[in-house]
Amino acid sequence: MENIFKTHFKEFSQLAEKNTKYTKQGKPMISRTDPDFYNTNSEGKIYIFLDIDGVLNTSNQWTRMYQLDKKCVSRFAEYAKALQGNVRVILTSSWKNGFDPAGKHTPQIQTLIDSLAFHGIRIVGKTLNREDGDRAQEINDFIVAHQMEQERCIVIDDDPDIFHAALMKNCKTIWTDAKNGFGQVKKQ
Known about the structure:
Blueprint: E1 45-50, H1 70-82, E2 86-91, H2 107-117, E3 122-126, H3 135-145, E4 152-157, E5 171-175
Parallel strand pairs: 1-2, 1-4, 2-3, 4-5
């Protein structure tokens, strides 16, 4: 059972570039992701659409950008392990702009990758930015573009105010309290 707190904090970082690109048919262009993402054997895969600020850190840490809270990361890892599946993370956070599928990540993203990898968790992709900033639609676009409508998806974020569209039915949502980051999780 999850002990997670809901809050309505505004997203701290507004560093995200407005760079969503669309095909002539109006569909979002797919950014290349980790090659293992496309492995056709999806059995046991669980996709977590992950925000960072207010989830893997706390609002008290926002005075210095790109900080991770070890306790929040550990609690997230504990939760991911309790899911008993092959967890794959897709970044939804403004941090995603430093994620390069070719491996040329910014230092803060490399720290994030290393921190999650220590717990056996991989980041395999990122959502594209939309000009309207609707994070729910960014997630929906990613799910449709990668034909993931039947996959098990979990969205973890601290700010429901930036979710304007309804999420796909296959998505479970966990809202965190930005003051505490990812909360204590008990095994189910």
